[in-house]
Amino acid sequence: MRELLRTEERAQANAVLCGMPLTEWQALPRRERKRRTDEGRIVAALREAGEMSGFPLIEATGLGSGRLYITLARMENGGRVVSRWADGPYPRRRLYRLPGAPVKEETDRG
Fold it and tell me: Mean pLDDT over residues 92-98, rounded?
């Protein structure tokens, strides 16, 4: 019973994260639910931080690097995320933000 409750709570949380009613979210194929949940985590992290590079996004979302970068590429191709190369010393970093979010000024890191 406890496991079922956790599953239902997780489903409700994921539906809210994706901005969908629970019944609509549950009707999606499993692969689509996973994709939308990953995108929802990324959007939530970017809303909170504004602009982030890959490693902080991995920490904020809990996604592995492979899933994160594949999802970011899909979102960028769809216009849901924009990116740019950070100025400054090497190693170069790619910064991701939501469209319309202000670009942060670079601080000198070295």
Answer: 90
Q: Are 96 and 61 in contact (CB under 8 A)?
A: no
Q: Integer distance in angstroms from the first to the last C-alpha of the chain?
A: 55
Q: Could you give the 3-state DSSP secondary structure of residue 95?
A: strand
The string of pLDDT tens digits covering residues 5-18 is 577 787 778 777 77
Q: What angle do CA 79, 38, 51 make, to 5 degrees?
A: 55
Please count the structural domains in the chain: 1
- Give me the CATH number covering residue 73: 1.10.10.10
Residue 41: how many CB atoms within 10 A of its CB?
21
**pTM over cut 0.90:** no
Helix/strand/coil for 14: helix
% of the chain surpassing 90 pLDDT: 37
